[in-house]
Write a structure and sequence with these properties.
alpha/beta; TIM Barrel; 10 helices; 11 strands
């Protein structure tokens, strides 16, 4: 793996990496103060300035984001990865390529955080949320999760899927990992972005499950484990015109089993082509 380009932010960086076959992926490493983990800590004082960076944040909440595919066949209408997919196509990453991203991200962050061991951070999280749809690469993803957990025993690992039929098999495989390592470290996220199924099929892919089907899968995941500490996350990256109706949300999902997260759309030429303007935005730069 060769680092081609890195963009630094106040609290971390994002890197473009070239694989042996010249295909490209994206990897990130960031940090934040622990009070941003409001879902877990329950702290009320969660107001922060993302530009008020402290090296101490790496010891509080350190997050690595990795890709599971180079390019992506899903072609969500707000995703800049579509441009890369048009140029090079797409393929699943190997287990070694996913684990290699974590090693790279940790090593790069250690250059600026004093060589901190991720196992000594209060929270060290690895997100399978960058480029690609994990459920299309389940075998390699599960093998990579297992290796990462063995390398970093304290790691929390989050798998994010848009919710297609193959997501059912992905979730079943996550149950097997929990049988092996316990129930207090895996997180499951569904990136669904709208409460309207018709809009989601246009926005993401014709093959997406209905929200009610995803709600059932999220509930089965949450209820399957004894004393599971975290609900399944529903990620809504909202545009100004996205259908998002609270009453629909209540009928599609059991609030006892899901946690709702609202995110901005990272505007780019692809989202612009489809007239998708973020509902809100934040600024984080140096």
């Amino acid at each position: 793996m060769i680092e081609l380009k890195t963009k630094q932010f106040t609290n971390g960086y994002v890197s473009v990496i070239q694989l042996e076959d010249k295909k490209l992926i994206e990897t990130t490493s960031t940090c934040l103060p622990i009070q941003t983990e409001i879902r877990i800590t329950g702290k009320k004082d969660n107001k922060i300035d993302a530009n008020d960076f402290s090296v101490q944040n790496w010891a509080e909440k350190w997050t690595v984001g990795i890709s599971t595919q180079s390019g992506c066949p899903i072609m969500c209408k707000f995703c800049a990865v579509n441009r890369l997919t048009d140029k090079q196509g797409w393929r699943n990453l190997t287990t070694e390529e996913m684990v290699g991203q974590v090693k790279y991200a940790v090593a790069e962050a250690q250059k600026i955080n004093g060589g901190l061991d991720p196992n000594n951070s209060e929270i060290f999280r690895v997100l399978f949320t960058r480029m690609g749809e994990p459920s299309l690469n389940t075998t390699n993803v599960i093998a990579a999760v297992r290796q990462i957990k063995l390398m970093y025993p304290k790691a929390r690992i989050q798998i994010s899927t848009i919710g297609i039929k193959k997501s059912v098999g992905l979730v079943a495989s996550l149950f097997e990992l929990e049988d092996e390592f316990g129930y207090d470290w895996l997180e499951l996220q569904f990136s669904i972005h709208s409460t309207n199924d018709t809009f989601r099929k246009w926005l993401q892919n014709e093959t997406v499950m209905s929200n009610k089907e995803i709600g059932g899968l999220a509930a089965s995941w949450y209820n399957a484990a004894p004393n599971r500490p975290w609900k399944a996350t529903l990620n809504f990256a909202l545009s100004k015109d996205t259908p998002f109706v609270i009453e629909d949300l209540k009928t599609q999902f059991d609030p006892k089993t899901v946690f709702v997260k609202i995110s901005p759309i990272n505007e780019n030429p692809v989202s612009d082509e489809n007239s998708l303007k973020t509902l809100f935005a934040y600024e984080n730069s140096i």
